What does this fold into?
Amino acid sequence: MMEKGDRLLAGVSGGADSVCLLLVLRELSREIGFSLSAVHVEHGIRGEESRGDAVFTEKLCGQLGIPCEVFFVDVPGRCRETGQSLEETARELRYNCFFQACSKFGADTIAVAHHANDSAETMLFHLARGTGIRGLGGIAPVMERKISEWEDDEHPLRKNLQNSADGENVRIVRPLLCVTGGEIRAWLTARGQTWRTDSTNADVAYARNRIRGRIMPELEQVNTQAVLHMQRAGEQLREISAFLDEESYRAGQGAWEQIKRSDGEQEIHIFCAAFAQIHPFLQKHLLLLLLGMQAESRKDIASCHVEEVLGLMTQGVGRKISLPYGMTARRTYDSVILSRDSGAGQGAGQQCLSCELQIPGETVWGNGLCFRTKLVENPEFFKKIPEKRYTKWFDYDKIKFIVQLRTRKTGDFLQVNAAGGRKTLKKYFIEEKIPREERDRICLLADGDQIIWVIGHRISEAYKVDGQTRRILQVEVVFPTADQISCIE
It folds into this structure.
């Protein structure tokens, strides 16, 4: 959890657990050689009592010679603004304050005071609410928190860590998970160390307090070592969960792919035929991982959501379900696509995105693609036109209107053969099995309602170079990054 030269920040509430943590870390810092600072957050919930906690903590840190930063936040006011629960809001604001203190003290690791009883209570809490193997693992001793989860993109700590070796994460460690709450209080009492008591811990209106005050004592009547036994079981379950993660990813190789769309958003494509070959248990576990990956969080991703996505595998094309975090899962011809709706797409019949193609010259499309054009006046050129997917040549004199780069709109059509046969763009997309949501984002080269080129796909027969061509329009698509090719294909 800590090595020589590390910079630790201890979260100290003033209660027995965090006071113990602070004293233990102070002794270890001398032995190991890491720096130590502290942070206290007064949540604005308990009035004078909690303000007393802040005074106690600041005084204790001063006596120990440990730098301390105290924050005052208004959790009840924030709850009224967001509609979140008191516990959830307090946790979010508390960690935001921790991150600010990390920035001030240059800390790269946050130490918090969870102990074995907290982990056992968490296991029961998750079990009662509904959970899988991961939730039954209790509290992990070491974890990393992604910078992208923090509220403020401009937060100084985000910038500091982006320049560090770790780059995107800060560590959170829990050194006291190996001991019980009873052992902590006994250790403090033996040292003559006082602590503060949070009166809300006795309020059974909170689910965790009911577990702590009513259920855990009964379990300890069954076996005095119940907490430590649950802690060991949690360790095994965390190992099993990590193993299942590895096995699920291994079994799922070739069954899914993460793709960047033309609007910059990520999608996950799950290929139904390959996915069906995976063991049913690993299918569910893999889906849970993929949903968490797309949502950038596993919180609130439940087994019911996994079952809903599984159900799409056997349903008809076009079916769509809504999921947490603004995610959707939709069934295409051969896959299920997980995405987070950005609202950037435009449907057929709605106002489409468009701009004039500069001829000759360069035109930059909204997703960063550059279209380079030039006119070639060489009647013999048509005899040696190469086959290239992202460079095309057209008979310029057959174009009737100003050439537009745009997304689709009602009435668009393609000429599909030399005899003049037409096909609506909608029908073409259906026959080519292009998913409905992707159709709204595909860039088109258009002459009025007639499509000259579906970028990345076919061109119209109406504008092909032939023996009568005098001027040739060359259009080349230039990609700023290689991975954007997949957005159009």
